[in-house]
């Protein structure tokens, strides 16, 4: 392949990846526009319309037989149920946090998540860490400890988002199913319950579907704002190096943090700055941990162990 063509493909991959993480970062603006709708009802609509979007995309790309084939395997059905529970808990927590005024804490959860994924890799997949990678995880833990001491409580929103999304990513990795097919499989499992809840709310006269044109449109398009970034991410991840994907993933919580502080006017105290600072430093150290300079700087005992 010619160099200009390779460069164009790389730029396209970067564009897809940045678009995905930017979309995830500004998602609080979308949920804030639905703040008059209870979080549980938003979740039900998000699940149902995500299934419609994902199934429609699967049909559009001529891959409809994949869903039947995947559902025929018992292991895939177990994977789908587990993933559906994890992602539903994650989505509900995030929606509730945004509309309850905890956008800053929600961003904290997604800053911690990459390092939690590393932790899962060590514990579950028996992956090895060098000194600086292990040090970065300890720094992140210190950051969580600082904010826990400051709040006088465990930052359960951040930790819930981290635990659910990190475990969700691990299960998807173990299952080995790509994003679009995986989203379709996960949502088809739970879509009937979501639709049942929507119908129940409408029949009881407490549902918001049809409440106004604006609210109805936002509920329907929640499937697109969920599914489209996943497609962009999948396309980008196929092209650009994993290290680039790892770096750009911090774009989403950074945008969310700025929205929380500057748009939604949530407090950001010196203690929170210290906590975030420790986590940002941990992420920076982890990002450069594989460089030769960092390997030379690690303690001699770890060099011998390696």
Task: Name its key features.
mainly alpha, 15 helices, 306 residues
Summarize the structure.
This protein is mainly α and 306 residues long. The protein has helices at 3-25, 27-32, 39-60, 64-71, 74-99, 103-123, 131-151, 156-175, 179-203, 213-239, 242-248, 251-263, 270-288, 292-297, 300-305.
Structure commentary:
The protein has 306 residues and is mainly α. It has one domain. It is 82% helix and 0% strand. It contains 15 helices and no strands. The protein starts with a helix and ends with a helix.
Give me the secondary-structure category: mainly alpha
Based on DSSP secondary structure assignment, what is the total number of beta strands?
0
Q: Count of DSSP helices?
A: 15
Low-confidence stretches: none
- What number is the mean pLDDT? 87
Quickly count the domains.
1
Instruction: Profile the largest sheet.
Output: none
| Strand residues, percent | under 5%
Helix content: over 70%
State the order of secondary-structure elements, H for helix, E for strand: HHHHHHHHHHHHHHH
Gyration radius from CA atoms, angstroms = 21 Å
User: What would the principal axes of the Cα set say about the shape?
Assistant: globular
* Measured distance between first and last alpha carbons: 38 Å
Q: Can you lay out the helices and strands and say which pair or pack?
A:
Elements: H1 3-25, H2 27-32, H3 39-60, H4 64-71, H5 74-99, H6 103-123, H7 131-151, H8 156-175, H9 179-203, H10 213-239, H11 242-248, H12 251-263, H13 270-288, H14 292-297, H15 300-305
């Amino acid at each position: 392949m010619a160099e200009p063509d390779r460069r164009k493909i790389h730029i396209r991959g970067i564009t897809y990846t940045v678009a995905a993480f930017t979309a995830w970062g500004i998602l609080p603006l979308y949920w804030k526009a639905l703040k008059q709708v209870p979080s549980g009802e938003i979740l039900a609509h998000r699940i149902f319309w995500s299934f419609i979007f994902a199934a429609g995309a699967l049909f559009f790309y001529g891959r409809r037989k994949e869903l039947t084939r995947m559902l025929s395997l018992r292991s895939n059905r177990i994977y789908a149920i587990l993933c559906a529970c994890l992602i539903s808990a994650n989505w509900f927590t995030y929606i509730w946090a945004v509309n309850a005024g905890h956008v800053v804490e929600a961003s904290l959860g997604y800053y911690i998540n990459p390092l939690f994924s590393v932790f899962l890799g060590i514990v579950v997949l028996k992956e090895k860490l060098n000194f600086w990678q292990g040090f970065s995880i300890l720094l992140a833990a210190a950051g969580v400890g600082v904010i826990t001491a400051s709040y006088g409580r465990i930052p359960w929103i951040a930790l819930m988002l981290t635990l659910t999304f990190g475990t969700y990513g691990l299960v998807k990795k173990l299952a080995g199913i790509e994003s679009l097919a995986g989203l379709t499989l996960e949502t088809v499992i739970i879509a009937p319950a979501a639709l049942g809840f929507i119908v129940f709310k409408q029949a009881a006269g407490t549902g918001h579907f049809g409440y106004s044109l604006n609210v109805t449109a936002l509920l329907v398009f929640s499937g697109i704002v969920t599914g489209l970034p996943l497609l962009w991410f999948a396309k980008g991840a196929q092209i650009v190096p994993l290290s680039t994907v790892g770096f750009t993933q911090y774009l989403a919580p950074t945008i969310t943090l700025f929205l929380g502080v500057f748009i939604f006017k949530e407090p950001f105290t010196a203690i929170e700055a210290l906590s975030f600072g420790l986590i940002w430093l941990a992420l920076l150290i982890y990002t450069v941990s594989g460089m030769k300079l960092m390997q030379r700087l690690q303690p001699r005992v770890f060099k011998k162990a390696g």
